[in-house]
Amino acid sequence: MSSFKIFDVAGSGMSAQSVRLNTTASNLANADTVSGDPNQVYKAKHPLFEAIRAGMGANAATNGVSVRGIVEDQAAPTARYEPGNPLADANGYVYGPNVNTVEEMVDMISASRSYQNNVEVMNTAKDMMLATLKLGQ
């Protein structure tokens, strides 16, 4: 295995965590939106990750992680009785998204730290390779 594959692994991790951060930011940005129709309200989104496993041979894929897709949370929206709201339905209810802001903030902190860990892996691998090259001087 080439020493340079560590950059592919850490890079794929950084890319995956970037998608996770973006979906979390989207969820937080839409946490206070409302709709008069429970089917039209924003639904929280979450990325699905998949491990990439290397095969054998020169043309093998690298190890790492990829984003398999982004799924919508199927939890029911929250209904609030606000008959004065212009978006209220015939019964006076508006519907809010199924976004839990506390869980989203925890997810954002976790994704940020995972991203930072992958950056640290890349920096450590770079420093080790540079130190190895200096041995030959």
Automatic annotation (TrEMBL):
Keywords attached to this entry: Bacterial flagellum, Cell projection, Cilium, Flagellum
Designated name of the protein: Flagellar basal-body rod protein FlgC
Assembly: The basal body constitutes a major portion of the flagellar organelle and consists of four rings (L,P,S, and M) mounted on a central rod. The rod consists of about 26 subunits of FlgG in the distal portion, and FlgB, FlgC and FlgF are thought to build up the proximal portion of the rod with about 6 subunits each.
Localization of this protein: Bacterial flagellum basal body
GO BP field: bacterial-type flagellum-dependent swarming motility
Superkingdom classification of source: Bacteria
Coiled coil start-end: none
GO cellular component, one term: bacterial-type flagellum basal body, rod
Family membership: Belongs to the flagella basal body rod proteins family.
Domain named Flagellar basal-body/hook protein C-terminal: residues: 91-135
Domain Flagellar basal body rod protein N-terminal: 8-34
InterPro entries registered for this protein in UniProt: Flag_bb_rod_N, Flagellar_basal_body_rod_CS, Flg_bb/hook_C_dom, FlgC
Pfam family for this entry, one: Flg_bbr_C
GTP-binding among keywords: no
